[in-house]
Amino acid sequence: MTREAGLDVGWDDLRLCLAVVRARTASGAARALGLSHSTVIRRIAELEQRIGVTLFTRLSSGYEPNEAGQLLAQAALDVEPAIVRALANVVGGDRAMRGVIRLAVPDLSGQALMRVLAGFAQAHPGVTLQVEASQTPEPLTRGEAHLALTLTAEPPTGQVGVPVGPVAFAAYAARTACAAGQDLAWLALPAGLGHIPVAPFDRAHARAFARVHRLSGVALHHAGVRAGLGAGVLACAVGDADADLVRVGPVLSDPAATLWILHRQELRGNARVATLFRALRTALLPLRSVIGGSGPDSAAMLLPALSGLSVCGR
Predict the structure, then answer these.
(1) How many domains are contained in the chain?
(2) Residue 224 dihedral angles phi and psi, to the nearest 5°
(3) Could you say which of 135, 157, 172, 212 is the most buried, measured as most Cβ atoms within 10 Å of its Cβ?
(4) What is residue 129's DSSP assignment?
(5) In a shared domain, residues 85 and 118
(6) Per-residue DSSP letters for 51-116?
(7) What is the pLDDT of residues 203-221, one digit of tens each?
(8) Domain edge (last residue) among 69, 90, 111
(9) In the chain, how many H helices and how many E strands?
(10) Domain assignment of residue 309, given as a range
(11) CB–CB of 258/196 below 8 Å?
(12) Is the pTM of this model over 0.85?
């Protein structure tokens, strides 16, 4: 705790400020910190009142940090790596199968992952799982997760693990919509997925199709494709497992989209993290071909080359 010149600011305060600066919204900061929306708003107000300084401008779109807010966020960035390393070293030697494991995974990781977690939880009742949806290794880098399933070409510094294999994507449409010869719209990838290797393919089709819809979140995107709202890109492991969907485009893959199981290097000696890591590795490595898109061949229904006229090849 820092007590200087009448200030009373701790790491939780700095971490809160940094989360709001990163997310620019209270709801985004709440998701990152595992708090409720109202708790984040209350704690920001309490911090500002305690130090007598306004840190953020409240806008209809969210929270815009002023100079003071930026200074506190930078202070958090300066000390965050050291705190993350210290905590990881403390937790790293824990041999007990009790406590919390925080796991970051991509949205729609599938029933296979949930079955692994259910079996792990049943076998180790002293362990509590906290699972966060994330498309990048950032929660692991910032110390917000112990383990992560993430798409990356190589593990970031300080993270170790095993590659499961390249993740394949393809365009999918509702089977009933294709059978009926519907002229579907294009469902653009949700915001926040612009970094994945298939994003240029998605953007090209969004420009070419006469009608383009965008749904917020991967789960809604999948549901929209399934309902016949439009065709869109999905991971093959998700699309091929859904009997109501059919591939309507070629398999798209890139080495930069390799699925890795990662943990922080300092956690090698943590028993519960090591046990869950082995469980994930045992379950996911045999699924390499599924994740890599070796499912059904729908070559007869390929998307026309950016024509936007008939998504089901009719």
Answers:
(1) 2
(2) -65, -40
(3) 172
(4) E
(5) no
(6) HT---EEEETTEEEE-HHHHHHHHHHHHHHHHHHHHHHHHHHT---S-EEEEEEE-TT--HHHHHH
(7) 998 888 989 999 988 889 9
(8) 90
(9) 12, 12
(10) 93-314
(11) no
(12) no
